[in-house]
Write a structure and sequence with these properties.
This protein is mainly α and 170 residues long. 76% of the residues lie in helices and 0% in strands. The longest helix has 38 residues. It starts with a helix and ends with a helix.
């Protein structure tokens, strides 16, 4: 059992690192450059969004499943209780997965909606250094109607981080 958990953690780290490397390698300046490339640039934006969202969803689903599976194993008792719908392992996985998705991804249905939201977000020059992943988290908070103070804190933190990354890499 421990071997399975170790293999699962290594797998999650690999998926997470590949997702993180994509997200950390793109910021608003890169996004704007793609915007100047016409239809080809737009298609690349669509590809980036699709790759990120699909990868994120798969990694989050796997992570939520593993975390819930571990919790379920720890909570198994040998009492003859009938599980209620809210205590079933699948409900716990779905709840955790939804929570992760609500924080990190806006509730858009198409890649074009993501591209439009990112184009609008990056049109503010103050957001040009914000990393792709952080931009999606901020857009998600805005779209989901989070508190303005929470959004402002996310923006300020992402802007500081983006500026620090830009200074250290030059």
């Amino acid at each position: 059992m421990k071997r399975l958990v170790v293999v699962a953690i290594v797998l999650l780290m690999t998926v997470g690192l590949s997702r993180a490397s994509l997200a950390q390698s793109i910021n608003g300046e890169d996004w704007a450059t793609l915007g100047r490339c016409g239809k080809v640039g737009h298609n690349i934006k669509i590809w980036i969004v699709n790759a990120y969202v699909i990868g994120f969803a798969k990694a989050s689903s796997l992570g939520a499943g593993l975390i819930s599976f571990d919790r379920v194993l720890k909570s198994i008792s040998f009492d003859a209780k009938v599980p209620t719908p809210h205590t079933t392992p699948i409900f716990k996985v779905e709840t955790l997965y939804k929570g992760i998705m609500d924080i990190w991804l806006p509730p858009f249905n198409t890649a074009d909606e993501y591209v439009k939201a990112l184009d609008q977000f990056y049109s503010d020059y103050k957001n040009s250094k914000i990393q792709f992943e952080d931009a999606l988290r901020i857009i998600s908070a805005q779209v989901r109607g989070r508190d303005k103070d929470e959004i402002d804190k996310l923006l300020q933190s992402a802007r500081k981080q983006g500026t620090a990354d830009g200074i250290s890499s030059k």
